[in-house]
Structure formats: C-alpha cells, structure tokens
Design goal:
Radius of gyration: 17 Å
Largest sheet: 7 strands, antiparallel
Strand content: over 45%
Helix content: under 10%
Distance between the termini: 58 Å
Order of helices and strands: EEEEEEE
Amino acid sequence: MARQARLQTEIENAFFLPKVKGRFWITKEGFQAVKIEFVTLDTISWGGIVARVSKGTRVSVEMTRVNNEVWLPKRILVSGSARVLLVKDTRASSISPTAGSRNLP
C-alpha cells in the first residue's frame, strides 16, 4: 500500500493543497510555470458554506510571455462541478482563451 505524505503548511490560503494532485511545467530560463494542471482528490470547501468544489474537478492553466515582459494566462480550462452558498450547483466545462493581450499605451 502506498504511503501518502501529510502536507502541513503555515500558509493560510494553502489549506486545499492536500486535496489536489497536480503537475507543473517550468521553463529552464527563469523557472517560470508555463503550464499547470491539477485534479481535486476530495471535495474542497471554502468558509464552510460559501463554496464547495467537487471531487474530480480538473483545472488546466497555460501561460504565455507577453512582449518579453510578463507572463499571463493564455488558456484556462475548468471541468467539474461546484456549489456556491449550498444553493447554486454548477456542472460545467469551460475554456477561457486569453490570447490577444498587448501593452496599453
């Protein structure tokens, strides 16, 4: 039987990390994450009844460098279900292309 490592963190906003499994693709130059994928291993709750993300929800984020200055999301893909305030139950797949970013004058 495989042993699971217990993740203990002092970062308040990282409470969900033990409930996700993910992969990061990182550049050799600058060590910037260019792609992030993760899946929830269990239901994740924020603030008790504020929001819940169901087990099996998948998230993928691809980053791109804009004008050789800053890294911004190129594409965000979310597939799964969530509940907000224990009332609104949402099941969806969503792709958010963010291409076309440019400098403001």
